[in-house]
Amino acid sequence: MDLINFNPWWRTGKVPSSLSGRKRKVFSELLPYLETRQILLLTGLRRVGKTTLLFQLIEELLQRGVQPYRIFYYSFDEARYNFDELLKTYQTDVLKSDLTDNATYFFFDEIQKLPDWSSQIKILYDLHPQVKIFLSGSARIPAWRSARESLAGRFFDIVIRPLDFDEFLSFQSVAIDPEREDIFENDIKHHFGNYLKTGGFIEAFNFEDMILRKYIRESILERVLFVDMPMAFGLASPELLLKLLTIIAARPGLYLDYKNMANDLKIDQRTMSNYIGYLEYGLFLNKLYNYSPNLLTSEKKIKKVYLSNSAFTMALEPSVDFSLLMEQFFVNLIEPRFFLRTPRNEEIDMIDTKNTAPLPVEIKMRKDVTARDIKFIFSFLDKNKLKRGVAVTLNTEGILKKNEVVVEAVPYWKYWTIKKKVGLL
Question: I need a labelling partner for 221 at 20 to 30 A (CA). Which of 214, 277, 338, 385 fits?
Answer without folding.
Answer: 338
